[in-house]
Amino acid sequence: MRLSIKNISKEYAGGKLALRNISLEQQNGILGLLGPNGAGKSSLMRILATITQPTAGSVHWEGIDILKNPNALRRVLGYLPQDFGVYPNLSPQEFLTYLAAIKGMSGRATRQRIEALLEEVNLTEVRHQPIRTFSGGMRQRIGIAQVLLNDPRLIIMDEPTVGLDPEERVRFRNLLSQLSGERLVILSSHIVSDIETIASSIAIINGGSLLQHNYPHEILQGVEGKVYEALLEEAELKDFASRQQIIHTMRRQGGWMARYLNASGLPAHSTETPVRATLEDAYLWQVSHKAKASAYV
Ligand SMILES: Nc1ncnc2c1ncn2[C@@H]1O[C@H](COP(=O)(O)OP(=O)(O)OP(=O)(O)O)[C@@H](O)[C@H]1O
């Protein structure tokens, strides 16, 4: 499987530039699209799912230009949009049977497939209940099941973990890990922990631009040895924050524990302690501080 995105830009009516000259290549595996709200993740995914066209650039799937020949990709695509709608009066079983029919699937094998999928997303017990009685997380699980109906080669899921509780998230991650193999899975999130354990590569997007596309360990390497914590007094915090790239702060008795990036080689505070860098540090470094930080790195 091979997806090749070249110089994609998207400008919406009204002049909003949602994507700026994005290029990336991806083969089998799980690509995590990471970026804050409004970064352009959905815009990129809608283009890849052939729902919208870019303003400029090209997308090739297995060497085929999907902007000119979208059906080649649609046949092997499973897509979960962010605003996935379900028919409230249908049960999960009826809904999946209906979608399968639309995709031209029927018969015993399809019934077995639906049964197995309902089991995978933990909806077997409620498979005959109307969807209108379901929580957001349960509806999202139906959305995940419908993506997998036709055993797709390219799976695109826009914020699939929204509404899932911690247990469901783990289950979903396990399901995805089992799925990969001869497939390309693209999923977006603004939550690092949803992606870091399963993604074979991560693309960080902000303001419509691709900041980085790399293996998780390579992204992590960018901040390794630069993350510290220090205990600050209340009165120090404002001045410290103006000088340092703070990742986050936590209240402590009599002050604040600040986690920050320091690439200067000089201690930024008398209580400075090095800590192990995480992918979240690297992500926050990229999306919120890179421009400022690059001035002294
Ligand atoms: N149909 C549209 N018309 C005009 N502007 C749009 C349209 N769709 C998205 N945008 C704008 O394009 C930018 C990128 O939006 P997009 O939905 O792709 O981001 P995102 O990273 O998916 O964010 P979120 O997680 O909040 O959905 C935003 O500023 C958004 O307001």
What do these coordinates show?
The chain folds into two domains: 2-220, Rossmann fold (3-Layer(aba) Sandwich), CATH 3.40.50.300; 222-293, no CATH class. The two termini are 38 Å apart. The relative contact order is 0.14. The protein has a six-stranded mixed β-sheet with strand order 6-7-8-3-9-10, with helices on both faces. A four-stranded antiparallel β-sheet has the order 2-1-4-5, with helices on one face. 33% of the residues lie in helices and 29% in strands. The longest helix has 15 residues, at 279-293. The chain has ten helices and 14 strands. It has 297 residues and is of the alpha/beta class. The structure holds adenosine-5'-triphosphate. Adenosine-5'-triphosphate is lined by residues 12, 14, 16, 18, 35, 37-43, 82. Adenosine-5'-triphosphate binds at residues 12, 14, 16, 18, 35, 37-43, 82.
Secondary-structure-derived class: alpha/beta
Q: How would you spell out the order of helices and strands?
A: EEEHEEHEHHHEHEHEEHEHEEEH
The share of residues in helices is 25-40%
CATH domain class name of the largest domain: Alpha Beta
Helix count from the secondary structure assignment = 10
Strand order in space, largest sheet = 6-7-8-3-9-10
Mean pLDDT, rounded to whole units? 90
The counted number of beta strands is: 14
Attached small molecules: adenosine-5'-triphosphate
- Name the CATH superfamily classification of the largest domain: P-loop containing nucleotide triphosphate hydrolases
Shape: globular
Termini separation comes to: 38 Å
* pLDDT < 50 stretches: 291-297
Q: Write down the Rg.
A: 22 Å
Q: What is the domain total for the residues?
A: 2
CATH architecture of the largest domain, by name, is 3-Layer(aba) Sandwich
> Would you give the CATH topology of the largest domain?
Rossmann fold
Q: What summary fits the major beta sheet?
A: 6 strands, mixed
In what range is the share of β-strand residues?
A: 25-35%
Pfam family, one: ABC_tran
Keywords: ATP-binding, Nucleotide-binding, Transport
InterPro entries: AAA+_ATPase, ABC_transporter-like_ATP-bd, ABC_transporter-like_CS, P-loop_NTPase
Family: Belongs to the ABC transporter superfamily.
